[in-house]
Amino acid sequence: MTTFDKREEAFEQKFAHDEELLFKATARRNKLLGLWAAEKMGLADDKAADYAKSVIEADLSEGGDADVIAKLEADLAAAGVPQSEHQIRRTMDEFMASAIAQVKAAR
To answer: What confidence score (pLDDT) does residue 83 get?
Structure first.
């Protein structure tokens, strides 16, 4: 194996590792976001955990964050706790930073 092949393999491994980290962090962020929204809607315990799972599942339907934001906006508005897209995105960014730290710490 040449040096070039070794470098290529190393880059591929790093890319795969980074993508795995991003996937886990996004799922963790969505769980935290779901728990945040559940608290705002007055859900507790099992209902809050179930709602957090539904937010994680919502993210799997499309690429990007639009599906999660749409779900949260609709659910919060239906519960009488409307939040702007800006507020949801800001909270999402805060939770993403926390989720990345948590995933890295778990390794």
So the answer is: 93
Beta-carbon count within 10 A of 47 CB? 12
As a three-state string, the secondary structure of 66-102 is HHHHHHHHHHHHHCCCCCCHHHHHHHHHHHHHHHHHH
Domain 24-106 top-level CATH class: mainly alpha
What are the percentages of helix, strand and coil residues in the chain, rounded to 5? Answer: 85, 0, 15
Please write down the long-range contacts of 57-64, taking CB distance under 8 Å and 24 or more positions apart. 58/30, 59/26, 59/27, 59/30
Average pLDDT value for residue range 11-25: 88
Domain segments of the chain as ranges? 24-106
pTM of the model: 0.85
Residue 79 has φ and ψ, to the nearest 5°, of -85, 0
